[in-house]
Design a protein that fits this description.
The complex is a heterodimer of chains A (594) and B (159).
Chain A lengths: L2 H30 L3 H12 E6 L6 E2 L5 E14 L6 H11 L4 H8 L3 H4 L4 E8 L1 H21 L9 E10 L7 H4 L1 E2 L9 E2 L1 H5 L1 H5 L3 E6 L16 E4 L3 H18 L3 E8 L4 E7 L11 H4 L8 H4 L9 H10 L8 E4 L3 E4 L3 E4 L7 E4 H6 L3 H23 L28 H7 L9 H12 L4 E2 L4 E6 L2 E4 L4 E3 L4 H17 L12 E8 L11 E9 L6 E8 L7 H19 L5 H9 L1
Parallel strand pairs in A: 2-9
Antiparallel strand pairs in A: 1-8, 2-3, 3-4, 3-5, 6-7, 9-17, 10-11, 10-22, 12-15, 13-14, 16-19, 17-18, 20-21, 21-22
Chain B lengths: L1 H8 L3 H64 L2 H10 L48 H21 L2
Classes of the chains: A alpha+beta (594), B mainly alpha (159).
Chain lengths: 594, 159
Amino acid sequence: MKPSFYFRYITIALTCGIIGVAIVFQMIRINYSTSALDLIAKSEDYRGVEQIIHPPRGTIYDRSGHVFATNQIAYEVGIDLKFVTDPESIAFSAATLLDLEYADVFTLASTEKREKEENRYYVLASYVDEETILELEQLKENYTVRRQAERSITPSLSGLVWAPMQQRSYPEGSLAANVLGFYNYFSRETAQGVYGVEEAYNRLLTGKPKNVFMPNDPYLVEALPDIDPGASLILTIDREIQAMLQQTLSDAINWSGAESGTIIVADPETGEILGMASTPFFDPNAYWDYEKTFPGITPYNRAIGDAYEPGSVFKVITMAAALDSSVAEPSTTYIDSSGVFWVEDSWPIYNWDGGAWGEQDMLGCMQHSLNVCLAHVAVDLLGEDLFYEYIQAFGFGRSTGIDLAGEANYPLRLPENNQWVILDLATNSFGQGIAVTPIQMVTAISAVANEGKMMAPHVVRSVVDGGQQYDVAPQVVSSPITAETAETLTQMLTVALEEEASTALVEGYTIAGKTGTGEIPTEFGYTSSQTNTSFVGWGPVDDPKFIVYVWLEKPSISKWGSEVAAPVFRDVVEQLVVLMKIPPDQVRLQLSAE
Amino acid sequence: MKNRLLQAYKQAPWRVQMQWIGLFLLGLVLVSSVAGVYLNISAQAATAGRNIQNLENQIDEINNGIAKLTTELAIARSAKNMLARAEEMDFSLMDPQTAIYLEIPGYDPNENLVLAPPRVNIINEAPIVQSSYKTSLWDWLAKNIWQLSDDATEGDTLP
């Protein structure tokens, strides 16, 4: 080899070697330099993003599969500063289409910011509808065409980005909203169900979110783990019955001038709630208007969240206790000679009309809704121990445990409490001095309609989770009275209703029921002329398929339950038997005889 | 003589050079092949990665589409809309007194809606502890040797 070649080879080798050593040295130096941690942290940003994937919230169906609550697509619109070239156009389009302030958006989109700030993505608007996004897309395309034609870099919406997101939707609007509750999806990180089924079953509906790392490096990309959607619920509510109840209630309030109202329809054999209407009606699609619709302490669902003194419908419970404990029979008589019953010679109890009704048997006492008679039954025949034992067996004084959030419960004033006086026993017997919720009344009185068995009220019929369906089995809460007592009382209330020629009667169907007119306490006592009017009834009497409870608060047309709540009950039942496909008694008996 | 013998076994310098060049090229080809295979596999992995991302996006789009259609369908079939359509078609609520009732055997208007199969209790009859945790090394060795010999025997009998 010539010496000159040798020298060249050595020079090249040395140069390459020095470069190699320098590279290795620099690598070591960077690794141990003070800014190494910053560099590592920066590199992490480019590795990918850690994301919490929220499964779609479960769907809620009515008992026939109609959708009550589901998810629909909306969009989040934001600015990605990396790609912004024309802040003016972005600000203009956001101001025009998203109704945002031009100056605010322009400040956010300013390209000077990207050098100064770490955060390079800003959310402009959430839950933007698809139509607006289509308009933005169209505008973006138009700008592209203009740029190409003018060979300019403006106008451009580059950097204005949007991504789909799921939004809770209630396709039926205000239908069954008081049962469903709502999902406050706007507060994305803390969103949860509020009231009703949405709150009571929030965890099931939400599903299990998963934390997933999404790498930018395509070598590291893996399929996302399977994320099961939140559980879906099938309710016991029948959409058609619910719609009918809401319409009937709305009409009833207009007709009677009542301040508010509640109607519950349940299946006494299973405890399933078939419909539950309560005012005010509310559209959960615009849940942010909640405070306008429910000012102050207005309950979201009066059927479960509002306690009131029910009045004479409570006599059903007193009479059930008297019959079941054998202290009275239907033929037991009471002589109402003066129209007043004195409690320990101190407190007088009067009848609803202030009159004396002479000798009455228990059927007559119920038929004419005599307060003095029922006070006599409670005070003289049952006594405080037996009366309150039955009251508690019927579930009063505690929550029914219905699977809806927001159930209220007013504690019972019992003889062992200091504030209790013997007058309470007398007034409680006809539903005054005791606060109950409509759902407590339905649950308790359903025992009379269901051979003495009190069923747990519930609104969820099945849960669909992980590809399997779990059906909710009806549960007996207790048996406060015997089947014989239940049958006897049902017969009494059927006859009482028929002999009274009540406005609650439905042609072709045998119904048992009881009216109620409850005085409303004020700070000066029961001085108000306004009342709570109620009616509870069930049928067909030989095989009850429904129990209906109507409560209209402070009607102006009349203060009597028999004149306000009873006709509403009839309206409900006339439509209910059609929707539930229950033939008139004659047809039904004829069909069963064949 | 000695010089001549040595001269007879020595390669010509150009041959040595060619051999080195050949060896270098062989190495280069091998390295290139490995690099090529590596690049190819890497490219396939990257493409697969991107495909996965695309498919995930498609799944999202499809799910979003399903959600949108479900909502649209639910709104179209809502009680309010159905009532309006029924009224448009001159339907009205029937009078129970004039209705004709028929008994349909097997029809239960109160039947449970079924959206998914009912829950099934899966009873796992397999032993909880796997056999590999209970087998000694000797047992395992013997079992595998027998297995091998069985396989070999079966192989012999094959046509």
